[in-house]
Amino acid sequence: MVSLDKKTSGKCGPIKFLLLTAPFYFEGKLVGLVGFWKEKSRFEESDCEQIKKLVEGIEVALANAYLLNEKEDRLRGLAEELINWIELKAPNRRGHAWEVAYWAGRIAEELGLSDFEVREIQLAALVHDIGLGGVNKFVLGRPGHLSPEEKKEVERHVELGKTILEKARFPTRIVSMVYCHHEKCDGTGYPRGLKREQIPLGA
Length: 203
Known about the structure:
With about 200 residues, the chain is an alpha+beta fold. The protein contains seven helices and three strands. The protein has helices at about 45-90, 95-110, 115-125, 135-140, 150-155, 155-165, 170-180, and strands spanning about 1-5, 15-25, 30-40.
């Protein structure tokens, strides 16, 4: 029993309540305490069962958040390696992926998307042209207008990017953004000619 004596008013006596603290752990280490209190009554067995389930939920949520951040870090590291590979094949595109990721993130923030969605869109933006690694390097580096055949060769990069990211086990939503990043609202884009809401927002 804990007693807090209110001294701000002479009419108020001490407030008595029961305080129960429960530890929660991550990877066998104590990482925090959560407190529960009841005024002028005791904790029943049913209360303790509910508290136990709540603490277990906190531990699961903490583990999931850690795994999600760890996976995101691995994917970002892989994305950076893929970008380096592209820039070696096409030096004229150096810095392009980072610039797109920056502006895509700023736009996502202005749209009021969640932090998770912003990071997801930034990651998709980093690898949006990854399929260019499979495009004929002579076509990729040639200045000026492309012939219809050369244009088709370059447009293959969205299909190639989709395949590469699927094999690398990137999340489906990111793969979809990359696959659709050349679609247009009026349906004149590629590869599927999607329109408006058919196109993933991140794309």
